[in-house]
Amino acid sequence: MPEEKLKEEDFEHQPCPLCHEKTLILTERETEVPYFGKVYLFSMTCNNCKYHKADVEATEQKEPVKYEFEISSEEDMKVRVVKSSEATVKLPHLATITPGPASQGYVTNIEGILSRVKYQIEAAKEMEEDEEDKKKAKNLLKKLLNITWGKEKQKIIIEDPSGNSAIISDKTVKSVLKVRVEK
Ligand SMILES: [Zn+2]
Protein backbone atom coordinates (compact mmCIF):
# COMPACT_ATOMS: atom_id res chain seq x y z
CA MET A 1 0.00 0.00 0.00
CA PRO A 2 1.38 3.43 -0.93
CA GLU A 3 -0.42 4.86 2.06
CA GLU A 4 1.85 7.01 4.13
CA LYS A 5 1.82 6.46 7.84
CA LEU A 6 1.81 9.81 9.57
CA LYS A 7 1.30 9.19 13.25
CA GLU A 8 0.46 6.26 15.40
CA GLU A 9 -0.39 6.10 19.06
CA ASP A 10 -1.25 3.18 21.31
CA PHE A 11 -3.21 3.40 24.53
CA GLU A 12 -3.10 0.25 26.63
CA HIS A 13 -5.18 -0.84 29.63
CA GLN A 14 -8.29 1.00 28.50
CA PRO A 15 -11.71 -0.05 29.83
CA CYS A 16 -13.51 -2.43 27.45
CA PRO A 17 -17.12 -1.44 26.58
CA LEU A 18 -18.12 -5.10 26.50
CA CYS A 19 -16.46 -6.94 29.44
CA HIS A 20 -15.52 -3.75 31.38
CA GLU A 21 -12.00 -5.07 32.13
CA LYS A 22 -9.07 -2.72 31.60
CA THR A 23 -7.66 -4.93 28.88
CA LEU A 24 -8.43 -2.87 25.81
CA ILE A 25 -5.80 -1.52 23.46
CA LEU A 26 -6.78 1.59 21.58
CA THR A 27 -4.77 2.48 18.49
CA GLU A 28 -5.10 5.82 16.77
CA ARG A 29 -3.54 6.37 13.40
CA GLU A 30 -3.54 9.40 11.16
CA THR A 31 -3.23 8.88 7.44
CA GLU A 32 -3.50 10.96 4.29
CA VAL A 33 -5.83 9.65 1.58
CA PRO A 34 -5.09 11.34 -1.78
CA TYR A 35 -7.95 13.58 -3.06
CA PHE A 36 -9.84 13.09 0.18
CA GLY A 37 -7.71 14.45 2.99
CA LYS A 38 -6.57 13.50 6.41
CA VAL A 39 -8.26 10.48 7.97
CA TYR A 40 -8.13 9.16 11.52
CA LEU A 41 -8.17 5.40 11.88
CA PHE A 42 -9.25 3.99 15.20
CA SER A 43 -8.86 0.43 16.30
CA MET A 44 -9.90 -1.16 19.59
CA THR A 45 -9.01 -4.69 20.58
CA CYS A 46 -9.76 -6.31 23.94
CA ASN A 47 -7.32 -9.01 25.08
CA ASN A 48 -9.87 -10.43 27.49
CA CYS A 49 -13.12 -10.88 25.51
CA LYS A 50 -11.71 -10.35 21.99
CA TYR A 51 -13.99 -7.39 21.32
CA HIS A 52 -12.83 -5.61 18.18
CA LYS A 53 -13.90 -2.40 16.59
CA ALA A 54 -12.30 -0.29 13.89
CA ASP A 55 -13.48 2.97 12.40
CA VAL A 56 -12.47 5.92 10.26
CA GLU A 57 -13.10 9.61 10.67
CA ALA A 58 -12.42 12.30 8.11
CA THR A 59 -11.15 15.63 9.37
CA GLU A 60 -13.11 17.63 6.79
CA GLN A 61 -16.31 16.58 4.90
CA LYS A 62 -19.06 16.20 7.43
CA GLU A 63 -22.40 16.43 5.61
CA PRO A 64 -24.46 13.28 4.88
CA VAL A 65 -23.21 11.93 1.56
CA LYS A 66 -24.18 9.48 -1.12
CA TYR A 67 -21.64 8.14 -3.61
CA GLU A 68 -22.45 6.23 -6.76
CA PHE A 69 -19.86 4.50 -8.87
CA GLU A 70 -20.04 2.04 -11.73
CA ILE A 71 -17.45 -0.71 -11.64
CA SER A 72 -16.71 -1.43 -15.31
CA SER A 73 -13.07 -2.49 -15.61
CA GLU A 74 -10.25 -4.34 -13.87
CA GLU A 75 -8.61 -0.94 -13.38
CA ASP A 76 -11.54 0.09 -11.13
CA MET A 77 -10.38 -2.48 -8.54
CA LYS A 78 -7.73 0.06 -7.46
CA VAL A 79 -10.20 2.89 -6.76
CA ARG A 80 -9.81 3.97 -3.14
CA VAL A 81 -12.74 3.61 -0.79
CA VAL A 82 -13.14 5.09 2.67
CA LYS A 83 -15.89 3.32 4.58
CA SER A 84 -16.99 4.35 8.06
CA SER A 85 -18.95 2.11 10.43
CA GLU A 86 -22.05 4.25 9.78
CA ALA A 87 -21.99 3.66 6.01
CA THR A 88 -24.36 1.45 4.06
CA VAL A 89 -22.66 -0.13 1.06
CA LYS A 90 -25.09 -1.32 -1.61
CA LEU A 91 -24.19 -3.52 -4.54
CA PRO A 92 -27.64 -3.83 -6.20
CA HIS A 93 -28.72 -7.43 -6.91
CA LEU A 94 -25.58 -8.66 -5.15
CA ALA A 95 -25.13 -7.64 -1.53
CA THR A 96 -25.48 -4.93 1.10
CA ILE A 97 -23.03 -4.11 3.88
CA THR A 98 -25.10 -2.66 6.70
CA PRO A 99 -24.05 -0.18 9.40
CA GLY A 100 -24.39 -0.87 13.12
CA PRO A 101 -22.45 -1.66 16.28
CA ALA A 102 -20.80 -4.71 14.66
CA SER A 103 -19.88 -2.76 11.51
CA GLN A 104 -16.24 -1.80 11.00
CA GLY A 105 -14.72 1.25 9.37
CA TYR A 106 -11.70 1.03 7.07
CA VAL A 107 -9.75 2.49 4.17
CA THR A 108 -9.62 0.07 1.26
CA ASN A 109 -10.27 -0.09 -2.49
CA ILE A 110 -13.08 -1.52 -4.67
CA GLU A 111 -11.30 -4.88 -4.70
CA GLY A 112 -11.25 -4.87 -0.89
CA ILE A 113 -15.00 -4.22 -0.75
CA LEU A 114 -15.65 -7.03 -3.25
CA SER A 115 -13.51 -9.51 -1.34
CA ARG A 116 -15.44 -8.69 1.85
CA VAL A 117 -18.70 -9.32 -0.02
CA LYS A 118 -17.24 -12.58 -1.35
CA TYR A 119 -16.39 -13.66 2.19
CA GLN A 120 -19.94 -12.76 3.31
CA ILE A 121 -21.54 -14.83 0.50
CA GLU A 122 -19.15 -17.76 1.05
CA ALA A 123 -19.94 -17.83 4.77
CA ALA A 124 -23.69 -17.73 4.05
CA LYS A 125 -23.29 -20.50 1.46
CA GLU A 126 -21.56 -22.72 4.03
CA MET A 127 -24.46 -22.25 6.45
CA GLU A 128 -27.13 -22.80 3.81
CA GLU A 129 -28.80 -26.19 3.65
CA ASP A 130 -31.29 -25.49 0.90
CA GLU A 131 -29.88 -26.61 -2.47
CA GLU A 132 -31.65 -23.82 -4.37
CA ASP A 133 -30.11 -21.15 -2.10
CA LYS A 134 -26.70 -22.81 -2.33
CA LYS A 135 -26.98 -22.54 -6.11
CA LYS A 136 -27.97 -18.87 -5.84
CA ALA A 137 -24.87 -18.17 -3.72
CA LYS A 138 -22.71 -19.99 -6.25
CA ASN A 139 -24.07 -17.79 -9.05
CA LEU A 140 -23.40 -14.64 -7.01
CA LEU A 141 -19.77 -15.73 -6.50
CA LYS A 142 -19.43 -16.26 -10.25
CA LYS A 143 -20.90 -12.80 -10.87
CA LEU A 144 -18.42 -11.32 -8.38
CA LEU A 145 -15.51 -12.92 -10.18
CA ASN A 146 -16.70 -11.48 -13.51
CA ILE A 147 -16.97 -8.01 -11.94
CA THR A 148 -13.42 -8.34 -10.58
CA TRP A 149 -12.18 -9.15 -14.09
CA GLY A 150 -14.12 -6.26 -15.63
CA LYS A 151 -16.34 -8.62 -17.62
CA GLU A 152 -19.54 -7.50 -15.93
CA LYS A 153 -20.59 -4.03 -14.80
CA GLN A 154 -21.74 -3.41 -11.25
CA LYS A 155 -23.03 -0.34 -9.51
CA ILE A 156 -21.80 0.45 -6.01
CA ILE A 157 -23.58 2.94 -3.75
CA ILE A 158 -22.27 4.19 -0.43
CA GLU A 159 -24.60 6.17 1.83
CA ASP A 160 -23.12 7.71 4.95
CA PRO A 161 -25.04 10.06 7.26
CA SER A 162 -21.79 10.86 9.09
CA GLY A 163 -20.07 12.01 5.88
CA ASN A 164 -16.94 10.04 6.72
CA SER A 165 -17.00 7.78 3.66
CA ALA A 166 -15.91 8.25 0.05
CA ILE A 167 -15.27 6.58 -3.30
CA ILE A 168 -12.31 8.43 -4.75
CA SER A 169 -12.57 8.58 -8.54
CA ASP A 170 -13.47 11.06 -11.31
CA LYS A 171 -16.27 8.68 -12.25
CA THR A 172 -17.92 8.93 -8.83
CA VAL A 173 -21.23 10.75 -8.61
CA LYS A 174 -21.48 12.47 -5.25
CA SER A 175 -24.70 13.88 -3.86
CA VAL A 176 -26.18 15.01 -0.57
CA LEU A 177 -27.78 12.12 1.28
CA LYS A 178 -31.35 12.83 2.34
CA VAL A 179 -31.52 11.50 5.86
CA ARG A 180 -34.88 9.99 6.58
CA VAL A 181 -36.29 10.98 9.94
CA GLU A 182 -38.23 8.23 11.71
CA LYS A 183 -41.67 9.42 12.82
ZN1 LIG B 1 -13.38 -6.99 26.71
Report what the structure shows:
The protein contains two helices and twelve strands. By secondary structure, it is an alpha+beta fold. The longest helix is centred in the middle third of the chain and has 18 residues, at 110-127. Residues 16, 18-19, 21, 23, 46, 48-49, 51 line the site of zinc ion (ZN).
Task: Describe the secondary-structure layout.
Elements: E1 5-14, E2 24-33, E3 37-46, E4 52-58, E5 65-71, E6 80-83, E7 88-91, E8 95-97, E9 106-109, H1 110-127, H2 131-148, E10 154-160, E11 166-168, E12 173-176
Antiparallel strand pairs: 1-2, 2-3, 3-4, 5-10, 5-12, 6-9, 6-11, 7-8, 7-10
Quick rundown:
The protein is built from two helices and twelve strands; from the N terminus they run βββββββββααβββ. It is of the alpha+beta class and 183 residues long.
